[in-house]
Amino acid sequence: MNMKQAQNINEVILFLDEIIEKSKIDQSNLGLFAILYREVTVKVKQGIQDGAFQNGERMEKLDVTFANRYLKAYYEYEAKEKPSECWGFAFEQADKFWPIVLQHLLLGMNAHINLDLGIASAEVCTVEDIADLQHDFDKINSILSSLVGGVEKCLIKIWPTLTWILKFTGKIDTFFIDFSMETARNGAWKFANEFVAVPENEREACAQLRDQRITEIARLVSNPGYFVSAVFKFIRLFERGTIAQKIIDMQIMEEKNMECVAA
Q1: Using an 8 Å Cβ cutoff, are 86 and 110 in contact?
Q2: Dist. CA 77–CA 72, nearest whole Å
Q3: CA 88, 59, 105, 78: dihedral to nearest 10 degrees?
Q4: How does residue 212 score in pLDDT terms, banded at 50, 70 and 90?
Q5: pTM here?
Q6: How far apart are alpha carbons 68 and 52 in whole angstroms?
Q7: Cα–Cα distance for residue pair 19/203, rounded to 1 Å
Q8: Rounded to whole angstroms, how far apart are CA atoms 255 and 216?
């Protein structure tokens, strides 16, 4: 299996580009999260260059360690091996018809923030110095959350039906509020502080337990109740274009740096 692991932030972007291009060819929804994640990585890289983080060298190390967990899960899934449970669940949904674009993005973010970010943070820190990471940890999460809000606005431009749905009922908005980035961030930070103190020989068991809990959240994102699920199905029926076209549409939005993504 070609298990690519990045050595620096530029390689992270390169490997994400490869996943996006392969997803277009394969007509795979896996490319949707990869686009969002690429944008996050580009913004982190820019932030490091601009001195936006307290410790740029540590942030690049965190970014690469963080990304490599996603890359490992992706290549394991592609090779028909077993990634972490929450990533496996997210990737399986990519092969199904009904999940809408936002669900694919949220499933990826759930696995990556709630499981991977805490573990990656613990791997680049020690019990003594992890508190120093909190400012930069919060910064990377704020980048993620702002991009999701921007993507939601941009998707409304692609699928006007979504505008009508959101006006018709406020319940869809509460679905995204319930999947609160702040809650995810706080949970990930708490887990990072717990995980960094776990002895090396107990870490795998600890990560597996966390993985199971995060997969339960993924199931709620995938099946958020009768009413919201019904509305999502209605939205899905009006999503326009092939999967490859959706990926291209999202890429065009990034390249134009539309205000809805940059917000």
Answers
A1: yes
A2: 9
A3: -30
A4: very high
A5: 0.84
A6: 23
A7: 29
A8: 35
